[in-house]
Amino acid sequence: MMFGIAWFAMMWFGLIMVALIAAVVIVRRRHHDAGDATEASTREQQSEARQQVLESVQGMHAAAEGLRGRARVKALRNYMDSMSDGLQLVSEIRSPASGSPRGEWVIAPGAKPERRILYIHGGSWIAGSPKSHRAITDRLSRLAHACVFAVDYRLMPENRYLDGIIDCRQAYRWILDNGPDGKAPADFVVVSGDSAGGSHTLGLIAWIRDQGLQPPNAAIALSPSTELMLTSLGSRANLKTDVMLGPTVKKLSRVPLPLLWWGTVLGMRVLPTSPIASPLRGKLHDLPPTLIHVSESEMLLENAQRYVEKARAAGSPVEVKTWPDMVHVWHLFTPLLPEAEEAFEHIGEFLSRVEAGSP
Hints:
Strand content: 5-15%
Order of helices and strands: HHEEEHEHEEEHEHHEHEH
Largest sheet: 8 strands, mixed
Helix content: 40-55%
Strand order of the largest sheet: 1-2-4-3-7-8-9-10
Structural class: alpha/beta
Radius of gyration: 26 Å
Number of strands: 10
């Protein structure tokens, strides 16, 4: 009798365990399926975002296709400015007072007037403007709780390359003593820029050092040009994967090198080997904490890494962070690209480390 009761109890215990195990398996499968669905949805969203970015880049090339001279420059400028149309900015856009450097203040809620960022936009020194880069300046103002002054420096070809550099230098001197509300000293200053503006940024911090001016607390260069590329253009690394710069460089590679060299000299009125145009060729000691972002798919990767290595060898606290499979200056596509948001989060972490005294 006792054996029968024990056997009956064990049978039901076994059935209950089987039921529990089955329930756990079903729940886990549902969670797994839901996770797969979520991951698939996320991958689809990321793929759609990247497709939109590629279409935007292709639109830039298409806007200037078949045009020459001033007409091409105008088309590029108009297209770049249109990239900020429809953006949902949280920052106030404010013009500086009369007599100030040309540009605009970008001021997010909570930004402190004594915290200032000088932003130098990209655009191959012929295009771009404070308007075209509001996606970046708005985000920088928010994450740094700082007022961003986006300098509207003079562009080529109607101005000299050096004129743009002079404008950036004057703007830096100015923001040391002037904020969005008028004359007042700054207690936290950052110099930042992208692409061609990244080149100006790296050249500017070396000039500030040489002039003995108050140095910025930090510098940030996004996909910067660190050296003008003139030789072996057709065989440059990432020529095929750089959807932004690759098509243009491929066309330039067909131009005989002597013509390309002298065309650059005449157009920019500065030697490509000069540190003014190629920061990599300058002296890189005693620089402020500097962060460089660059895509592993773009043509500027190798020279950016060379710049970091040379600066570190000279004792400067310069670091680089790379992202795979991103377009040139992908930061412009925030908040569409998750990687752009990741990049700004990394910038925020970098600035926090700088302020904590541990870059």
